[in-house]
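[Discussion] Sanity-checking designs against the backbone

I'm trying to build intuition for which residues belong where. Below is a structure token string of 114 positions. I'd appreciate it if someone posts a full sequence so I can compare it with mine line by line.
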């Protein structure tokens, strides 16, 4: 589970101590707050997928198309995803009970992997 992603010349991370998205242009030497994550629940993972930053929390899947400056909910996580990863053409998510789901729609819909 990753809480930091590279977005071009910036690094974007979730800081659990301040419950916020932060950005660094100094390769991680200093960070500035970009977005307060109130109402997004317990953030579990970040990943970059097809130009978007995808955030996985216990409240669902959120996405940002502008380097973490604004976020929108994409999916209510009735499956309780605990991790999410970019696999090129698909997103792969793991549930708390160990099931693996895949999405080829950027997280709008999910299907269970066998």
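Best answer:
Here's mine. Compare freely.
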């Amino acid at each position: 589970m990753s809480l930091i992603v590279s977005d071009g010349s910036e690094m974007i991370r979730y800081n659990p101590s301040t419950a916020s998205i932060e950005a660094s242009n100094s390769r991680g030497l200093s960070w500035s707050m970009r977005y307060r994550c109130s109402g997004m629940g317990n953030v579990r993972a970040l990943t970059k997928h097809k130009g978007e930053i995808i955030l996985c929390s216990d409240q669902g899947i959120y996405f940002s198309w502008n380097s973490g400056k604004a976020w929108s909910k994409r999916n209510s996580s009735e499956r309780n995803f605990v991790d999410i990863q970019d696999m090129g053409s698909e997103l792969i998510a793991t549930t708390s009970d160990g099931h693996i789901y895949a999405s080829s729609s950027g997280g709008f819909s999910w299907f269970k992997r066998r």
